[in-house]
């Protein structure tokens, strides 16, 4: 079952976005379920809101269908992660997950379109804004759990399989908000998403703690550097004014001396 719409997953509790939501009248929502109104025709959202099933003919890539979540991930979140479990790989296991923009066509697999990235189970390839994939990770099939994360601090996207981080997939992070996306092609494929309502296979809590700690340290460092720069500018201005005052005093004394000699 999908979590409530104001849900905050454990790894984001006490993060900047969580604290902001507590203080604001209107909170920033996070993805909680698949959006049945934002999908291609051959993917069906089951009653729980987080499970998907492929219902198309599945003849070839022309029959691909993808779906986005109910809400996007905003850069202000800093870090976001979700997982899918492959309940049934179907006939060919042509399943993919990733991230995409809100205007990208959904009759294609994740990563095949511009401003979209996807990791596919049938070939283990990474698709980045192209129908041609690059070698990235292992294949995944029935029983496997695959995750996707976006780190807005270092502008990276990564994937996981069965709790293991497969490494940075891309630093070609797209500007602004991004939607989690899931896609399928062949008959009887079925997946179940986890948007944080239950424990993840991957230890995202530890990863998130490191990310937010580093981000806070970098912010302090930047503020100190900015303060130092501002202080240097003030000192430079005061020094310049002091020189001008001295020049005026010297000029005045010289004028007085000339007047007295006359």
From TrEMBL:
<feature type="region of interest" description="Disordered">
    <location>
        <begin position="238"/>
        <end position="262"/>
    </location>
</feature>
<feature type="compositionally biased region" description="Polar residues">
    <location>
        <begin position="248"/>
        <end position="262"/>
    </location>
</feature>
<protein>
    <submittedName>
        <fullName>Concanavalin A-like lectin/glucanase domain-containing protein</fullName>
    </submittedName>
</protein>
<dbReference type="Pfam" id="PF00622">
    <property type="entry name" value="SPRY"/>
</dbReference>
<feature type="domain" description="B30.2/SPRY">
    <location>
        <begin position="12"/>
        <end position="200"/>
    </location>
</feature>
<dbReference type="InterPro" id="IPR001870">
    <property type="entry name" value="B30.2/SPRY"/>
</dbReference>
<keyword id="KW-0430">Lectin</keyword>
<dbReference type="InterPro" id="IPR043136">
    <property type="entry name" value="B30.2/SPRY_sf"/>
</dbReference>
<dbReference type="InterPro" id="IPR050618">
    <property type="entry name" value="Ubq-SigPath_Reg"/>
</dbReference>
<dbReference type="InterPro" id="IPR003877">
    <property type="entry name" value="SPRY_dom"/>
</dbReference>
<dbReference type="InterPro" id="IPR013320">
    <property type="entry name" value="ConA-like_dom_sf"/>
</dbReference>
<dbReference type="GO" id="GO:0030246">
    <property type="term" value="F:carbohydrate binding"/>
</dbReference>
């Amino acid at each position: 079952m999908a979590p409530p719409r104001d849900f905050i997953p454990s790894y984001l509790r006490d993060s900047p976005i969580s604290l902001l939501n507590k203080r604001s009248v209107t909170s920033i929502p996070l993805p909680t379920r698949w959006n049945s109104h934002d999908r291609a025709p051959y993917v069906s959202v089951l009653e729980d809101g987080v499970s998907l099933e492929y219902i198309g003919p599945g003849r070839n890539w022309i029959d691909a269908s993808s779906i986005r979540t109910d809400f996007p991930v905003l850069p202000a979140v800093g870090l976001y992660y979700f997982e899918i479990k492959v309940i049934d790989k179907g006939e060919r296991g042509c399943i993919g997950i990733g991230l995409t923009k809100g205007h990208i066509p959904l009759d294609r697999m994740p990563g095949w379109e511009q401003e979209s990235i996807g990791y596919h189970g049938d070939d283990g390839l990474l698709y980045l804004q192209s129908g041609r994939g690059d070698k990235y990770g292992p294949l995944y099939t029935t029983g496997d759990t695959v995750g996707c994360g976006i780190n807005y601090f270092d502008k990276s996207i990564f994937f996981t399989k069965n709790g293991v981080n497969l490494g940075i997939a891309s630093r070609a992070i797209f500007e602004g908000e991004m939607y989690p996306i899931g896609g399928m092609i062949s008959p009887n494929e079925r997946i179940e998403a986890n948007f944080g309502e239950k424990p993840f296979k991957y230890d995202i809590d530890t990863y998130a703690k490191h990310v937010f700690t580093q981000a806070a340290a970098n912010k302090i460092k930047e503020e100190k550097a900015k303060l130092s720069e501002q202080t240097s500018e003030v000192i430079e201005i005061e020094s310049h004014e002091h020189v001008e005052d001295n020049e005026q005093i010297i000029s005045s004394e010289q004028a007085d001396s000339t007047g007295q000699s006359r």
